[in-house]
Amino acid sequence: MTISILYVDDDTDYHIIVSKFFKREADLSVTFCSTAHAALDLLEHELFDVIVSDYLMPVMDGISLLKEVRKRYGRLPFILFTGRGREEVVIQAINNGVDYYLQKGGDFLGQFTDLIHKIRSLYEKNAIENLARENERRFRKTLDRIHMVAFHLDENGIVQYCNDYLLSLTGWTRDEFLHKDFFEMAVPPDLREMKKRLYKEAVSKESISQHEEMKILLRSGEIRDLDIINTDMRDEKGRFLGYMCIGEDVTEKKRVRNEALSWKQRYEKLTARTGQIAYEYDIDNDILLMDESAGHVIGYAPEELRNGKELWMNIIHPDDYQNVFDTFSRAVSESEEFDISYRIKHKNGRYIWIQIQGFFDPAPDTRSKIIGIISDITREKEAEIALLKSEEKFKLYLEKAPYLVVIFDRYGRISYTNPAGEQLTGYSSAEITQMSVFDLILPEEVPETRIVFETLFERGYVHKNVTLIGKNKNIVYVEADAILLEGGEVLGFCLDITENVVNEKKISEISRKLRLLQSITRHDVMNVVTSIRGYMLLLNDFEDPAERERIFDTIIGFLKRIENLVNFSREYEQIGVHSPTWQNVAHLIEHIHTSNIPVRCAIPQDLALYADPMLDHVFANLYHNSVNHGGDVTEISCYMGIDEQGIRIIWEDNGVGIPSEEKDRIFILGYGKNSGFGLYFISEVLAMTGISITETGEYGKGARFEISVPRAMYRFESEQ
């Protein structure tokens, strides 16, 4: 460390003397000037640690130089070293801030030794003061930057310093706040006198509370909460200068803390009433802490189970012990959340159900603590067990129910069926649960059923009679009820009413037949009888044998017509008497009693129709219709076609065909040549199972009958 010295003296001889003395000191470096003006010029370009100046110099003396240095460079150390020892010079030097005053003359060695000592001590003092000033500058700069309030009060409570954050918080400007009475400016009126009194007591004792919470009044009138640290301020001599107060605005923290406390109190009340306990378990120290609601929920006071896991494990139901132990051990080893329900023994001796939810405290230094909730779920569990037993009974009821039961979703996808469903449809339960309810319904009824199905989700319940198709294409008529369950699933019940429907159809058909047969008996037969009587009366009026022969032939024709009516009645009354059956079409055609015109049959050998047992009469009548009424028929063929509704069986010949105006009338009872019963009979037999027949041939190119068979009414036996 080198101390740089600026020596100012107009006596150049003294320059030589000073130089010789200072050269002996390794830590001293000296620069000489002969005038004060030269010294000021040099100070503008170089830095010096100490100035040593003579007093009496031309133009500008040492005192004038001192004044100028203090004006320009503040506390730069200054020693006045002069031969003038007048008292007024000394007083003037001291008044203008000289650091030391030394008089020349006398013992040179002692004089320069004293000068060098004062230079060093002055340098060290100035370095300490500069460091202190720099530290104070940095400290205040730091205070101005932090988001904390900082202010200095003197012994009278006057603000000597305040940082920017305090001003921004209070809303005051620096000029408005600085050097003002802090208590008048910033303390709420109701606390002002008390705070002044306490501050005066602290000043008189030179001791104040190091930490306090205080309220500060803002310019707007709002009151905020501050958390303050107080430090007494003293000068270098230890004299008391007041207090430095530093702290933070804790208004929001305090509000949050109060809210948290309020929530805690409300939560404890809530848990006590809802059967819940908040707990914390310290794994390392085996300490279990619970809130006060433990006594209401499990009967034990929190301190009774405080000493950890072993006490708690002792009250677990024996059947649940191992599961609880394994779950807890796994959760601890893997630091994972858990949620488990089990039984514990209440202090009153009965077992209750509880649910424990736990997770590890996320704070890094608290990973050995589990916090969570214990809930009394006894009522819910007992209700669940009762419901389970009820569901088991209900399931047993469904399994034993004699009618089809299905459960399906809003899209119709089946998730359950009972054994009766398997028996009724022919499908296994595994097959049914891969199907939609619409797969089981007769295709012709699906559109209407879908419409009804949509209303189910509005009304919650629907009832409809539906026709089902079994695995073997068998028809099942059911009375269906569907109920919308919670969760969106649908419970369906299907009662087999096939026998009732068939009987109703039979009764209806019998009634219709009776009416028709009565009509034939009463009307057609009586008409023919009347005609015969008329011709019998006319027979006596004719003597010509040829004429009498013609009348006899007419009467025989009438008798033949009566015979046909009787035969038709006999056959017609057999339609619908017996239940429909599956019948092989190719086999029926092969067994028609043909004349000399064979039938070219291209029907698949395994095609079967579900039809009235008199289906063989259909193909027999079609054959005789072609032979007897087709004209010069030489070819008859039968084959199968496929359309969107099912299949078509086509019967055609190469005869004359049927005129367009007669196509819609040929299936009416009594229309056509001879009896007019054949085609009507065919349509009636087919209609018993929903099969229809139309004539689509082109007149002059032969007759063409199309038998339309719905999907449910045919099958290929090789696929069964």
> Can you give the helix content as a percent range?
40-55%
Total domain modules: 6
Q: Tell me about the biggest sheet?
A: 5 strands, parallel
CATH homologous group name of the largest domain: Histidine kinase-like ATPase, C-terminal domain
End-to-end CA span: 115 Å
Quickly give the structural class: alpha+beta
* Number of helical elements: 22
CATH overall fold name of the largest domain = Heat Shock Protein 90
Query: In terms of quaternary structure, what is this?
Result: single chain
CATH C-level class of the largest domain: Alpha Beta
Rg estimate, integer Å: 61 Å
Relative strand content: 15-25%
What is the overall silhouette? Answer: elongated
CATH-level-2 architecture of the largest domain: 2-Layer Sandwich
Structure, explained:
The chain is α+β, with helices and mostly antiparallel strands and 720 residues long. It has 6 domains: 3-137, Rossmann fold (3-Layer(aba) Sandwich); 146-249, PAS domain (Beta-Lactamase); 256-383, Beta-Lactamase (2-Layer Sandwich); 401-496, PAS domain (Beta-Lactamase, 2-Layer Sandwich); 502-572; 581-719, Heat Shock Protein 90. It has 22 helices and 28 strands. Strands 2-1-3-4-5 form a 5-stranded parallel β-sheet, sandwiched between helices. Helix 18 runs antiparallel to helix 19 (545-572). The longest helix has 42 residues, at 498-539. It is elongated, with a radius of gyration of 61 Å. The relative contact order is 0.04. The mean pLDDT is 83. The modification 4-aspartylphosphate is found at residue 54. Residues 613-699 form the Ig-like domain. One of its GO terms (biological process) is phosphorelay signal transduction system.
